[in-house]
Amino acid sequence: MPKLERSAYYDLTRDMNWRFKYVRAEEVFPQEMVHNPEVPYEEWWKWDEPYKVTYREYVYNQSEKDHGVYSVKAAIARSKLFDALDNGWKAALTAHYGAIALPEYLASIGESRMARFGLGASWRNMATYGCLDETRHGQIQVYFPYGLLDKHPQFDWAHKAFHTNEWGAIAARSMFDRMFTANDALSTAIQLTFTFETGFTNLQFLGMAADAMDVGDVEFGALISSIQTDESRHAQIGEPTLRILLKNGKKKEAQRLVETMWWRAWHIFALLTGLSMDYYTPLEHRSMSFKEFMEEWVLRQFLDMFRDLGMDPPWYWDIMRDEMNWYQHGLHLGVWFWRPTVWWNPDGGVSEAEREWLEEKYPGWNDTFGRYWDVITENIRNGQTEKTLPQTLPLVCNMCHIPIVTLSDPKQKHNAPYVSEYNGRRYLFCSEPCKWIFDVEPEKYAGYLSIVDRFLAGHIQPPTLENVLAYMGLTPDIWGRDADNYAWAFQKKVDQAAVGN
Ligand code: MN
Ligand code: MN
Q1: Can you give the residue ranges of every domain in the chain?
Q2: Model confidence pLDDT, tens digit, residues 224-267
Q3: How far apart are CA 331 and CA 267, in angstroms?
Q4: Which ligand is nearest to the CA of 196?
Q5: Neighbours of 133 (CB within 10 A)
Q6: Where are the alpha helices (DSSP H) in 179-296?
């Protein structure tokens, strides 16, 4: 076994670029797979990752990580830990597994594409580790919920969700296909690793890990912390790629790649992490509101990074900051109302104490959202739960594929739906940035049917709500019910007037 210092062989092993003699570089790296915006081939040889690791170190670290997490799982397998968890937390858990487990596995396709078509050898080397990482994340996040199948059949959706036409799965699939399953190597580096991983995975993986430890879900906390250590390593593929683009005068292209993906990632995380942090996590264990976490872990960090790189924040930065006050609340109301259309049991999360917290974190919440919950609470107290269930489908955005949420307050600038015409068809969008992303490259999105498009095109026959649920793969043992069987609607704080008076 050679005992060389790492520095003595590292560059030699990870940076094997060479000039081709028998073919042209463009034949080895076809544009369809690479999308190199005319940066000279050898410029990419300067690609340099901030985090160095050798294969030997990688294998050792990963095996230690797996050993740690699987030991935690084994140690608590026979305990009553899961049964003691709060029902709202279980909703966050079930939503997470369905939305994340398979996309992790699919991300290994994007990493493999970079491992073959990345333009510098050191980039391809890092992406090889990334591919192994994502394979591990896919496997471990299917295996852990498998252990919970005897607790609830919804955990089967860790494996199943992505194979269905459930609306959230359609939304996630549409974004992830664009981001990595069907993306070229350069765009994957910017859109998956820089935009999505550096920008947003901290939210779900660090934020939720902190909350998990706090609620006592040691297994989930250990699992996602272990994943995040890999993410923060392979996410570093983005920055050196961006630096080379910027150095070669391709700032406009770099901005376009970031901006067309940042917004979609924001919407998906508002749906997944927004609901978990602001409604599902038990009140006494919430470390921060979703908005606070966004400010602290996403926006501030990213503004610094944009500035450092010489890039500009996306043009819609102010629109996003405005949405952070209300978007996730609108989604929560919608998801709870349409609860039979999701694979988890949404927690209303609006007991009196929780409403106080919401009003404190989001001043004006009571006037804007509380009044809808007043009506819902009243109906539940009167035993009329059928009035709190849907009869029809909501409008869905043709970009993010999330139901269109709008505020009824006329003082708001927000004015959905936004409309585009393309090839004789109308497309509806929830927001100005979603419309803009479509308008930049309509040919990439025009053929993707939303759940409502499918309904109108006759894919769901006869067009009843029952058949919509069947089309989504949802059966009565799976579809969402209120997490606490409406207990929150009856929880009153002493000394306080009843809700809705
Ligand atoms: Mn991953
Ligand atoms: Mn990743």
Answers
A1: 1-311
A2: 999 999 999 999 999 999 999 999 999 999 999 999 999 999 99
A3: 10
A4: 2
A5: 23
A6: 185-188, 201-202, 208-215, 218-234, 238-247, 251-269, 275, 290-293
Question: Is 60 exceeded by the pLDDT of residue 496?
Answer: no
CATH architecture of the domain formed by 1-311: Orthogonal Bundle (1.10)
Task: Kindly write down the DSSP assignment for every residue of 179-210, as one continuous string.
Answer: IIIT--HHHHIIIIIIIIIITTHHIIIIIHHH
What is the value of pTM for the model shown?
0.94
**Strand, coil or helix: 221:** helix
| Range 2-34 burial, b when 16+ CB lie within 10 A, else e | eeeeeeeeeeeebeeeeeeeeeeeeeebeeebb
Q: What confidence tens digit (pLDDT) does each residue in 393-426 have?
A: 889 999 999 999 987 765 666 677 999 999 999 9
Identify the sign of the CA torsion 11, 14, 20, 21. Answer: positive
* Ligand 1 centroid – CA 360 distance (Å): 34
> How far apart, in whole angstroms, are the C-alpha atoms of residue 314 and residue 433?
10
d(CA 38, ligand 1 centre) in Å? 30
Could you say which ligand is closest to the alpha carbon of residue 197? 2
**Which residue stretches of 362-409 are H helix?**
365, 371-381
Task: Identify the pLDDT of residue 146.
Answer: 95
- 499 pLDDT band (50/70/90 cuts)? very low
CA of 501 to the centre of ligand 2 (A): 49
